[in-house]
Write a structure and sequence with these properties.
single chain; 419 residues; alpha/beta; FAD/NAD(P)-binding domain; five-stranded parallel sheet; binds flavin-adenine dinucleotide
Length: 419
């Protein structure tokens, strides 16, 4: 097995929000990032990539550009030997060990799956860029299927879209995709007057439970005014290829069930032998150091991070928190360690084109202003000026041109050569 050392002695596992920012902020101290992809996904813009408002390539930031002083090793960490201070990494070219002086674990989260009959076979996830592109293509295919449907029953089924989980990801994805379908319908004359049915369900008592009640109520009103059928205190019981059964006893004919019902810490944490809580999150102290591992730190969605600004409460899985934790950790790795402390400045979400909600520094915005504040905030947070400009160009283009409705599921699956 080949051996190598981490650049500057710091090895960062995971190139997402948390890991990518730690490596970026370490600057000339250097770091080696281990990541299966060569980019960081800017998840808050994923719904817009799914609806086609943004080019999928523009919602990712290449790690080599984002962290020019760091080294990137494309692969997956599969073992940590904390005694000998090395990590085993599987790459396309084989397995190698990378030795480190300081280890940063930032493996994020995966979709939380539940043992619901048919979920794995028939529901679609919404966590990664391939998920977003697949969902877009799937929705456009449903329009094609509805267009050529031989019965009204089949047409209604193809135009019914069920989202399970009314957190940010579910609400924003539903809002963006319903805009896409509304715009695309003009190209399907046979579907003129056909009814679309968008359903949003959640086990909780209200949608967007994370945000202040007034804004959450506004979001619910906006979605309801657009005809979204919101059902709270409702869960998914089972999924089939063309129907879903809910806990309220209803059976919804649909070919689209999107699962956005939360995340759980990356199960790789357990395989790496790290100390975990009962939710699989890595246990860290207030300096973000992993309990019992003096040379290792963890942060982001995959860690249980105590926050001095919110005693007794651990950080929620958001990129805002991952980014602040990364700032603290980069400083702690470069100088005398100080406890992590961050008070959230606000929360923002879009509800499709020109509508949004924002709660920033105690000021609350909704409607067009909420949408504008949300977009400005994300533009500010997105790393790299070139990426910001590309996104602004996409947004501007979407103001003047109609949406593209090409369905490109064949991308990435070229035809094989040969007879
Ligand atoms: C659709 C969606 C919308 C969201 N919208 C918002 C929002 O609007 N606002 C907000 O604050 N938060 C939002 N979030 C949450 C936000 O994305 C996360 O909190 C944030 O990404 C956490 O950062 P992280 O680095 O811990 O994890 P990630 O960003 O998920 O990064 C983890 C990285 O680890 C890599 N990895 C996994 N296994 C291995 C391995 N074995 N070896 C090496 N690398 C590995 C992964 O490929 C990934 O790059 C959203 C999430 C989703 C899914």
């Amino acid at each position: 097995m080949a051996n190598r050392g981490a650049l500057g002695g710091t090895l960062v596992l995971g190139g997402g929000f948390a890991g990518g920012y730690v490596a970026r902020l370490l600057g000339k101290r250097g770091a080696t990032i281990v990541s299966p992809e060569n980019f960081m996904l800017y998840t808050p813009m994923l719904p817009e990539a799914a609806s086609g408002t943004l080019e999928p390539r523009h919602v990712v930031v290449p790690l080599r550009q984002m962290c020019p002083r760091a080294e990137l090793l494309l692969g997956r960490a599969t073992e940590v030997d904390s005694g000998n201070r090395h990590v085993v990494v599987e790459t396309e070219d084989g397995t190698l060990t990378v030795s480190y002086e300081r280890l940063v674990v930032a493996l994020g989260a995966v979709s939380r799956s539940l043992p619901i009959p048919g979920l794995g076979e028939h529901a679609l996830g919404f966590k990664t860029l391939p998920d977003a592109i697949h969902l877009r293509n799937h929705v456009l295919r449903r329009l094609e299927a509805a267009d050529s449907a031989t019965s009204e029953e089949q047409r209604n089924r193809e135009l019914t879209f069920l989202f399970v989980g009314a957190g940010y990801a579910g609400v924003e994805a539903l809002a963006e995709l319903s805009d896409l379908v509304r715009d695309a319908m003009r190209y399907y004359p046979a579907l003129r007057g056909a009814t679309q049915h968008w359903v949003l369900i959640d086990a909780a008592a209200k949608i967007l439970p994370e945000i202040p009640t007034r804004l959450g109520d506004y979001a619910a009103q906006q979605l309801a005014a657009r005809g979204v059928d919101i059902r709270v205190r409702t869960t998914l019981e089972s999924v089939e290829a063309h129907a879903a059964t809910l806990s309220d006893g209803s059976r919804i004919p649909t070919s689209t069930v999107v699962w956005t019902a939360g995340v759980r810490a990356n199960p790789m944490n357990e395989r790496l032998g790290l100390p975990l809580d009962d939710r699989g999150r890595v246990l860290v102290d207030s300096n973000l150091r992993i309990e019992g591992m003096p040379h290792a730190w963890a942060l982001g969605d995959g860690a249980r991070v105590p926050n001095e600004a919110t005693p007794g409460q651990f950080d929620p899985p958001t990129c805002q928190h991952a980014l602040r934790q990364a700032r603290r950790l980069a400083k702690n790795l470069s100088g005398p360690p100080r406890p992590y402390r961050y008070r959230m400045l606000g929360q923002v979400a879009t509800l499709g084109r020109y509508k949004g909600i924002a709660d920033v520094l105690g000021l609350r915005f909704r409607g067009f202003l909420g949408w504008f504040v949300t977009r400005s905030y994300h533009l500010y947070q997105l790393p790299l000026l070139t990426r910001k400009l590309r996104v602004v160009v996409d947004w501007t283009t979407s103001l003047f041109f109609r949406r593209d409705i090409a369905e490109l599921s064949m991308l990435g699956h070229p035809e094989r050569l040969g007879p």
